[in-house]
Amino acid sequence: MMDCCHGVNRRGFLLLIVGSLLGCIAPRHAYSFISIISEAEESEIGKKADQEILARFGRYRDQQLQAYVESVGQRLVDGIGPTSFRYSFKIVDISDVNAMALPGGYIYITRGMLAMLNSEAQLAGVLGHEIGHVTSRHAAKQLTKALGAQILALGLMAASPGGRENTGEWARVSTALFEHVLLGYGREAEMEADECGLRTAYQIGYDPGEMVAFLKAMKMKERLEALGYHGFQGTHPETSDRVVKAETMASILIGQRSGSLDVKANEYKAHLDGLVYGAKQDKRRLKIYVAKDGDTPATVARDVLGDQQLAWEVANLNGVKEAAVFHQGDQVKTLPPVSRGLHDGRQLELTPN
Ligand SMILES: [Zn+2]
Questions:
Q1: Which of 167, 186, 134, 147 is nearest to 23 (CA)?
Q2: Residue 247 forms beta bridges with which residues?
Q3: What angle do CA 123, 138, 141 make, to 5 degrees?
Q4: Same domain membership, residue 345 and residue 301
Q5: 202 and 130 in one domain?
Q6: In sequence order, what E strands does 8-115 have?
Q7: Tally of domains in the chain
Q8: Is residue 188 included in any domain, yes or no?
Q9: Cα of 68 to ligand 1 centre, how many Å?
Q10: What pLDDT score was predicted for residue 302?
Q11: In angstroms, how far is CA 54 from the centroid of its own chain?
C-alpha cells in the first residue's frame, strides 16, 4: 500500500502535522463522541483498569529507575499544557517490548522496552506516543465504537465510586479495553500517536531523530522475530510506514530549530545497570560498561564478556553497527552470558531447586 504522505508536498504535510497536533493538544473539540463519556468517567475507567494491569503484569521494583521514568514522563506532560488528567508512568515487570496507555493518563512501559531503548530522547518519544493516545482519547473512542453507548454507560456505573464490583458490565468494558491497550488502537490512531510523541518530545528539547532510530530498530526486530510493535500481530501500521512518516516529520522539526537538541544516551543507559533482562527465571541482568576511547563492540565483547563472538549482540543491544567506535566515557549495555552465571556461587544460591 502506498504511504499516505508520498503525494503531499512539504507545506501540505506541515499543515497535516499541525492539524493532527491540535488533536494531540486540544482533543476536546476533535471528536463528536465526547458527550457520551466525560473525562471524569475516563479517569474512573483508568483507575479501575490500572489495578487489573498491575495485578496481571506486576510492577518492576526499582525505585530509582521508576523515579527516572516518572520524571521524564511528567516533563512531557508539562509540555502539553493544562490537562484534566493526572498522569502516572509505571514500569511493568515483563520482557515484552511494549508500552501502554489507559484512559485518564495511566501509562506503562515494560522493562523489555526499557532494555531496548538507547537514549532519553527515545524514552521521551515512546512515552509521548502513549500520552498521545490519552490526549486524543483513543480508548474512549474505541470503547464507544466497540460496545455502544448503553453498555458503556452500564460499565461506567460499575466502575464509578460505590459501583458494584466485578459486574458483567464492567467485565465487558474491561475486556474490550484490554484488547485495544495490548494490540493497539488501529492504523490511524497509531500514526496520530506517533506524531504526538515526536512533537511532544521535540517541544521540550529532545531530538526527534531518536524516535526514528527507535522505529528502525523495531523494524529490524520485527524482521528477526516476526512480531509487531505491541508484541502480537498488532494493528500498529506497518513499521516501515511509520519510519517513513516519522523521518519526514523529524526532518521538518529539526529544520525549524536553530539550537541543539538533546539525545542523552549516556544519561539514559546509566540508569539501566542491573535491569532484569528476558525471562525472569533466566536471572540475566544488563551490565553497563563505561567505554575507553577506541572501544568497539568487538573489543567490549572480547574484554568484558570474554567472547568476541558476542560483538553483534553488543552492537544490536546498543543500536549501533558492529563497526562503530565508542568514545571515552560512553555507557555501553552488555549482557553477561548465562553460562557465566552458573559458575558464580552467589547466583547458584539464588537458584531454586
Ligand atoms: Zn500505540
A1: 134
A2: none
A3: 170
A4: yes
A5: yes
A6: 88-92, 99-102, 106-110
A7: 2
A8: yes
A9: 22
A10: 97
A11: 17
* Residues 230, 110 share a domain: yes
**Rounded to the nearest whole angstrom, what is the distance from the C-alpha of residue 243 to the centroid of ligand 1?**
14
Region at 162 (left for phi over 0; alpha for psi -120 to 50; beta for the rest) = left
Adjacent-strand bridge partners of 334: 287
Question: Is residue 3 included in any domain, yes or no?
Answer: no
What was the pLDDT predicted at 235? 45
CB 91 within 8 A of CB 109: yes
Helix (H) or strand (E) holding 50: helix 39-57
**How much distance in Å is there from the Cα of 94 to the middle of ligand 1?**
18
Query: Among residues 224, 256, 288, which one ends one of the domains?
Result: 256
Q: How far is the CA of 193 from the centre of ligand 1 (A)?
A: 6
- 249 lies in which domain range? 10-256
Reported in sequence order, the residue ranges of 168-274 that DSSP labels E, i.e. its strands, are none
Q: From ligand 1's centre to the CA of 315, what distance in Å?
A: 27
Q: Identify whether residues 103 and 200 lie together within a single domain.
A: yes
- Give the pLDDT confidence of 227-258 residue by residue, as tens digits: 554 444 444 557 788 888 999 999 999 988 88
pLDDT tens-digit map of 262-308:
999 999 999 999 999 999 888 899 999 999 999 999 999 999 999 99
- Bin 81: left if φ > 0, else alpha if -120 < ψ < 50, else beta: left
Q: Which 8-state DSSP code applies to residue 35?
A: G
Among 223, 256, 289, the domain-final residue is 256
Distance (angstroms) between ligand 1 centre and the Cα of 188 equals 10
How far is the centre of ligand 1, averaged over its atoms, from the C-alpha of 29 (Å)? Answer: 21
pLDDT score at 86? 95
Q: How far is the CA of 343 from the centre of ligand 1 (A)?
A: 42
Residues 65 and 156 in one domain: yes
Expressed in angstroms and rounded, the spacing between residue 18 Cα and the centre of ligand 1 is: 20
Asked, for residue 304, whether it belongs to a domain, the answer is: yes
Residues (pLDDT < 70) of the chain are: 1-36, 162-167, 226-237, 339-353
Residues β-bridged to residue 277: 284
pLDDT of residue 167: 66
In terms of domains, do 186 and 297 share one? Answer: no
Residues 161 and 300 in one domain: no
Residues 240 and 91 in one domain: yes
Residue 208 lies in a domain: yes
